[in-house]
Write a structure and sequence with these properties.
single chain, alpha+beta, two-stranded antiparallel sheet, seven-stranded mixed β-sheet, binds phenylalanine, 38% helix, BirA Bifunctional Protein, domain 2, 2 domains
Length: 343
């Protein structure tokens, strides 16, 4: 027993002082001490010769010895691996890792966020609603009763299971939902995707994105509408851009107008984008029709309001001079990665 203990101590010193430079030296350490015919196993085998009353004490000692050898082996493995890498001159461990490719936001998201943030600064809150709508919120409540010819202005996708359901053709439906809640005054913008049954081309798509706005309070006037939209245009396109309003027709507003800005491409002198007129239309707007207020339970003798709606694709095309609407939905990374913005 005495000699066995001395033997173990001797092995332990050997193990402690063992140095390895290469991984095959580590492997010979493993074979010598921890292998199936290694010294740890051999010493363990001595258990059978130990007196019964000493077995417990001796067992503990052997176990410690085994753990000691294993710990040294782990340490050798960890350090030698690195030394080897460091010695291999083709690998520079001080180099920073390859950066992961960063994605970028979709141009439609960038421009939508920018539009939203401009109106938020004026106190507008964001409201959202479902893309599958019912006839009431998309048409009837908006002063477009059944068989009204103006329904043809927006080619609609209907859901075949239920003739009352459709894909919303504008986010005005969200405005109806907000008006129905009756928390006045209302000052909201409604960003979202809308659908129209159009043939896909460079200028039209069966889905696109809008930001519509609605302000209802006492004494809201057309002057408020104009001032709000002037502010928007200046923030979005800069101070030099000119603005004009043209009378128009929408069933949900009276009076109604369309707003044009001076062409960003040619600066007003006439090009293909503005069809040689120097102006491009960017949104529809007007004073909320009293019928709408009444349809949603709002007293039209007390409250007035304005509404406007714009297409995000159109504004993005003008801002980045993109000529084909289809690029937005083709998911070509070469196109998408060109757009960056602080927002
Ligand atoms: N809802 C209209 C459209 O989608 C836009 C609009 C909104 C016009 C509000 C006037 C007032 O074409």
């Amino acid at each position: 027993m005495e000699t066995l203990l001395q033997q173990i101590e001797k092995y332990k010193t050997e193990i402690k002082d063992f140095v390895a430079q290469k991984s095959d030296e580590v492997e010979s350490f493993r074979i010598k001490y921890l292998g199936t015919k290694g010294l740890v196993k051999e010493v363990m085998g001595e258990m059978k010769n130990v007196a019964a009353d000493k077995k417990r004490e001796f067992g503990q000692l052997l176990n410690e010895f085994k753990l000691f050898a294993e710990a040294k082996y782990d340490e050798l493995k960890a350090t030698t691996g690195n030394e080897q890498l460091a010695m291999d001159s083709s690998i520079d461990l001080s180099l920073p890792a390859d950066p992961l490719p960063l994605g970028s936001r979709h141009p439609i998201s960038l421009v939508r966020n920018q539009i939203v943030s401009i109106f938020q600064r004026l106190g507008f809150a964001v409201a959202e609603g479902p893309e599958i709508e019912d006839d009431w919120h998309n048409f009837t409540a908006l002063n477009l009763p059944e068989n009204h010819p103006a329904r043809d202005m927006q080619d609609t996708f209907y859901i075949s299971q239920n003739p009352d359901w459709l894909l919303r053709t504008h986010t005005s439906s969200v405005q109806v939902r907000e008006m129905e809640k009756g928390n006045l005054p209302i000052r909201i913008i409604c960003p979202g995707r809308v659908y129209r049954n159009e043939t896909i081309s460079a200028r039209a798509h069966c889905f696109f994105h809008q930001v519509e706005g609605l302000y209802i309070a006492e004494n809201v006037s057309f002057a408020d509408l104009k001032q709000t939209l002037y502010f928007f245009v200046q923030e979005m396109f800069g101070k030099d851009v000119k603005v004009r309003f043209r009378p128009s027709y929408f069933p949900f507003t009276e009076p109604s107008a369309e707003m044009d800005i001076s062409c960003l491409i040619c600066g007003g002198s006439g090009c293909n984008v503005c069809k040689k007129t120097g102006w491009v239309e960017i949104l529809g707007c007007g004073m909320v029709h009293p019928n709408l207020l009444e349809n949603c339970g709002i007293d039209s003798t007390k409250y007035t309001g304005f509404a406007f709606g714009m297409g995000v694709e159109r504004i993005t095309m003008l801002k980045y001079q993109i000529k084909d609407l289809r690029l937005f939905s083709e998911n070509d990374v070469r196109f998408l990665k060109q757009f960056t913005s602080a927002i």
